[in-house]
Amino acid sequence: MADIIRLLPDHVANQIAAGEVVQRPASVVKELMENAIDAGATSIKLIIKDGGKVLVQVVDNGKGMSETDARLSFERHATSKIQSAEDLFQLNTKGFRGEALASIAAIAHVEMHTKPENVEMGTHLRIEGSKIIFQEVAVTPLGTSIAVKNLFFNIPARRNFLKSNQVELRHITDEFHRVALAHPSIGFHFYNNGSELFNLPVTNLRQRIVHVFGGRFNEKLVPVAEETQVVKISGFLCKPEFAKKSRGEQFFFVNNRFIKSAYLNHAVVSAFEGLIKNTNHPGYFLYLDVDPKSIDINIHPTKTEIKFDDEHTVYAILRSTLKHSLGQFNVVPALDFEH
Ligand code: ADP
Ligand code: MG
């Protein structure tokens, strides 16, 4: 029998990988904003058109890229963030897979402008469906701008699967909230179809929450602070009387990365036991800092799930810390409270 196994061409492999990394425009928003943060940006601008289907652009004032790096950044498994497998256990960056830009470029029209410090001219590059259309020297400010147009232009099935502009914008806004809440020390702008949705100045966490969710949040927040050998916990709970029937504002960040965890959510809910109706959901903005060696964030391509070495201990510390915070604020039971 003849041999039939072949290696897939790069552009096909990239398209397949893209299916995992990029589900919708909001995934592009997440990846581009995380890259801007990893590049040390202090100011990040997000520009969207038509729910991100027509355009997702992120402009940062981070460290930029050299001419060669600009081209290499679109290669699969090309990254400046890790060098060895050991580095995976001490990650200080959001990215490390070197897959995002390669994936995005496989399924969209991408235009990049980038310039590092101490050089006069930057790079302007266009890549479409993994194919570099041109790369030229260009006048461009320090930092990087990446514009992603016509997402899934070459995968009609995926493009048709996208929801209305309004729904896609909601997903994008969720991602924006997560990144903005994780980084109050970075300034953010967010424009949708030419109008400004958010202008978030550099500030502290309490003010950032208020800027994102509105002034009424200021009186809702109960501060949380605890530091143990295993985990440092900070952030805010919403007072029990503001618990809602819908889930609303529930945010966990581990080492400044937004994560989803039903298990840790359970710890929060159980700290509110007796203070809210069990059909209501508490609001929270909780930041856990742990030794990077004690977690594995490599278990999911979009990295919203992580694995703790010692989940039970984190759960127990979290629960007792939150109970203490709620107790300190002399919170009265809100069982009869109606919304
Ligand atoms: P990863 O973030 O996992 O390294 P990406 O595909 O997202 O993979 O990016 C590849 C590389 O391109 C990064 O490691 C980084 O060196 C460079 N890069 C991407 N975006 C930016 C940016 N906004 N500013 C500076 N460098 C960037
Ligand atoms: Mg990245």
From TrEMBL:
Domain DNA mismatch repair protein S5 residues, every copy: 209-327
Function of the protein: This protein is involved in the repair of mismatches in DNA. It is required for dam-dependent methyl-directed DNA mismatch repair. May act as a 'molecular matchmaker', a protein that promotes the formation of a stable complex between two or more DNA-binding proteins in an ATP-dependent manner without itself being part of a final effector complex.
Keyword flag Protease: no
Gene Ontology biological process: mismatch repair
GO molecular-function terms, A-Z: ATP binding; ATP hydrolysis activity; ATP-dependent DNA damage sensor activity; mismatched DNA binding
Part of the intact protein present: 1 to 339 of 617
Family: Belongs to the DNA mismatch repair MutL/HexB family.
Cellular component aspect of the GO annotation: mismatch repair complex
Protein name: DNA mismatch repair protein MutL
Keyword terms: DNA damage, DNA repair
Species this chain originates from: Saonia flava
Domain of life of the organism encoding this protein: Bacteria
